[in-house]
Amino acid sequence: MLWSLTGILVLAGLVAAWFFSNFDYLPETTWEKPGKEALRNPYLAFERLLERLGRPVVRVSDAPALDQLAPGGVLLLDNSRRIHVNARRTEALFDWVARGGYLIVAAEPRRIDDPVLKHLGIEWYQPPKAVTGENDDAGQDDGEPEHDETDACESSNPPCEHGTDVIPVHLPARGQPLSLRRSSRWNLWGLAPTSPAPVWKAGGVDSASAVLHYDYGAGSITVFDDFAFLGNRQIGEYDHAELIWTLIRHYQPRGEVRLATRLEVPTLWEWLAESAWMALISGALLLAAWLWNIVPRFGGTLVSPSPVRRSLVEHLAAVGRAVWHLGENGRAHWENVMRQELRRHVLQRHPHLADVSEPELARILSAASGIPENRVAAVLAAPENPSPRHFVDCAHTAQQLEQRL
């Protein structure tokens, strides 16, 4: 039994020795899809790196927070900040740097106004146009690629290696240069300093730099053409992690490390109060003046004044003018009206005279009123030859009859 167990152990040892002598242990690296947090935060790996190194990153997502930065510390200011960092806020940032802060900023893409670069006298270097043949692409704008080749790599695939440009970065704090990989879209472009001159710079050529460093007051400013090297996909490549850590540790070893990226878009009222406050004040003054002008008109409805009543004399004068303008037809019409009104008045007081003939009625009315019979008969019967004089006489006789009866 003992010999059998010993033989099994020896055989197992020989098999193990043969296995390890013929097979090697090789690590295999696989690329996994990024998680939800990494998809939401492109600088997640950078934040965790600094947290492990003892300098946790504080995220700045609200633009007004840039106006209240504590003295000292580090601020990494990403691009796509045009509507947030205006000229006034830029002055505040440079004042913060002059008091001992360290600003690491990514330049805005060319053709976009960047107050930070303008304050430092930095421009985008434009390479000379190359002579192209007939078969070359003529649709490119000044030699700038239409899209970033690095963006063509899907996040689910391993990092692509095409179109890279690795440059050395010589830091004063290190003897050996550090390698920095530039995005392929900046291979032909770069940052061109004018005045003041940077303390040191790094780039493919002297006229087009990828990194510019300035001393500003008691602080420092480092300008990168972009922050692609800090992204989750590239922070572990080349010397990217060591480069950013060396910069932070050398130029600002104390204080918070703030990362300002994806700043929230201000509301309309916030933007107006920040960028158009003079227009708001002018509009408020005009509105107040308009309200002051119309406020006395507010209140209850005033009582409408009573219409002016015309006097009887005015009505009669108007009737007379109408009769006069109508001529003979007007006089005949109003004589007939007076005649009918006189009959109505007589019959209302003396109903028994309704069946009496006109001559008999004229005699009775003449006897009762004392007016000559011929005048009464002229009122009761239509005239053969009407005239203005006859109209006036009839009106006068009719008025006397109504009064005396």
Summarize the structure in short.
By secondary structure, this protein is α/β, with parallel strands linked by helices.
Ordered list of secondary-structure elements with their pairings:
Blueprint: H1 2-22, H2 36-40, H3 44-52, E1 57-60, E2 74-77, H4 87-98, E3 102-106, H5 115-120, E4 122-125, E5 165-169, E6 178-182, E7 190-193, E8 200-202, E9 211-216, E10 219-224, H6 240-251, E11 257-260, H7 268-275, H8 277-294, H9 312-326, H10 328-349, H11 358-369, H12 373-380, H13 388-404
Parallel strand pairs: 1-11, 2-3, 2-11, 3-10
Antiparallel strand pairs: 4-7, 5-6, 8-9, 9-10
Helix pairs in contact: 7-8, 9-10, 10-13, 11-12, 12-13
- Tell me the strand order in the biggest sheet: 1-11-2-3-10-9-8
Number of domains: 2
Structural class, judged by helices and strands? alpha/beta
* Helix count from the secondary structure assignment: 13
Global Rg: 54 Å
Beta-strand residue percentage = 5-15%
Shape: rod-shaped
Q: Please give the CATH class of the largest domain.
A: Alpha Beta
Largest β sheet strand count, sense and barrel closure: 7 strands, mixed
At CATH level 3, the topology of the largest domain is Rossmann fold
Using the 3D structure, state the CATH architecture of the largest domain: 3-Layer(aba) Sandwich
- Return residue spans where pLDDT drops below 50 for at least 5 consecutive residues: 134-163
SSE topology string: HHHEEHEHEEEEEEEHEHHHHHHH
Pfam family, one: DUF4350
Protein name: DUF4350 domain-containing protein
